[in-house]
Specification:
Length: 165
């Protein structure tokens, strides 16, 4: 299923290309209830995830491979995104380098829901995520006009049911 708009709280609306994932991320948060992991931090996601999770008594962990950026965003600096973690409800993938995203999606596919930024067709020559995204049982593509796309996938939850007709 493909959608171009998500009704979300005003503070979750996108302001630019870098945070075009926010409405989809909010939708996923609203429809899940447990631990959240962010792979690749940013001002368009990390503070929003941190606040939402704190207000809703949810565990939130954010990892970043750029040490300076990790310091700027309050993320945990790591040289390896591939972590052995417990049960994860939601994983947000917006990591650099972009070429690693397809591998992160596969590695974390046992999470209930995976949200991935920059999934538009024009970016696939770099990210090469289309193949792995096509293997999930459930998929929701959010394609806001003129901005990068975000995809929500799951093998466990029918994420298309989150959209009201």
């Amino acid at each position: 299923m493909t959608i171009t708009k998500i009704k979300c709280p005003e503070n979750w609306e996108s302001d630019n290309d870098w945070d075009s994932h926010r409405p989809a991320l909010w939708l996923a948060l609203k429809n899940t209830t447990e631990d959240v992991v962010e792979l690749g931090s940013g001002f368009g996601s990390t503070p929003f995830l941190k606040l939402y999770c704190a207000e809703n008594n949810r565990e939130f962990i954010t990892y970043e491979t750029n040490e300076e950026w990790a310091g700027n965003t309050g993320s945990i600096f790591t040289d390896d995104y591939f972590k052995t973690l417990g049960k994860i409800d939601l994983v947000f993938v917006d990591a650099a380098p972009g070429e690693i995203r397809k591998d992160l999606i596969e590695y974390y596919r046992n999470a209930n829901v995976v949200v991935i930024h920059d999934t538009e067709e024009g970016a696939d020559y770099v990210y090469k995520m289309s193949g792995i995204l096509a293997t999930f049982k459930y998929r929701l593509d959010y394609k806001p006009e003129g901005k990068p796309s975000t995809t929500i996938v799951s093998d466990k939850i029918d994420v298309t049911q989150w959209i009201q007709p």
